[in-house]
Amino acid sequence: MSNDSTPRKVTAREAITKVLVKNEATSKKNAMKVPAIIEAVLKTRNLSLTGDNKGQTVYSILYSDNKKADGDFKNVGKGLFILNPKRKSAKPKPAAAKPAAATPAAA
C-alpha cells in the first residue's frame, strides 16, 4: 500500500528552476546571484538534497548545466544565472502523432 498523503521530494534541479521562474516573474532583473539562488533553494520544502554541503551541490548543478547548450540554466555574468531560453524543458512537447489525412489526387 502506498501512502498518497506523503508529498513528493523536490529535486535540486526542480527547486532551482522554480526559484529562477519566480524571480523572472517578480524581478525587473532576470539574473540572480548564486548565493541568493542557494538560499532560496535551501528553503524549499521536501528538498531531496542530502549531505553536508547542499549549497555546493546547487552550485555544481548550476555550473555543470551551464556547459550544455540546451541546459536549464545560463550564466550571464560573474555568478549570475537565468533560465536558459533554449532549455529542453522550455520547449513544448510534440503533440501525439496523428495519422496523415488522405489528400485527394489532382485531376
What does this 3D model show about the protein?
The protein has three helices and three strands. It has 107 residues and is an alpha+beta fold. It has a domain at 12-83. The chain has a three-stranded antiparallel sheet. The model is unreliable at 91-97 (pLDDT under 50).
Quickly describe the structure.
The protein has 107 residues and is of the alpha+beta class.
How would you sum up the global shape?
A: globular
Strand content: 5-15%
Decide which structural class fits the backbone: alpha+beta
Order of helices and strands: HEHHEE
Rg, please?
19 Å
Q: What is the terminal-to-terminal distance? A: 64 Å
Mean pLDDT: 80
Number of strands: 3
Work out the helix count.
3
Percent range of helical residues: 25-40%
Describe the sheet with the most strands. Answer: 3 strands, antiparallel
Which oligomerization state do the chains in this entry correspond to?
single chain
Give the low-confidence spans: 91-97
Report strand order across the widest sheet.
1-3-2
List the SSEs and their pairings.
Blueprint: H1 12-26, E1 32-33, H2 34-42, H3 54-66, E2 73-77, E3 80-83
Antiparallel strand pairs: 1-3, 2-3
Helix pairs in contact: 1-2, 2-3
Write out key terms for the chains shown.
3 helices, 107 residues, alpha+beta, 3-stranded antiparallel β-sheet, single chain, 3 strands
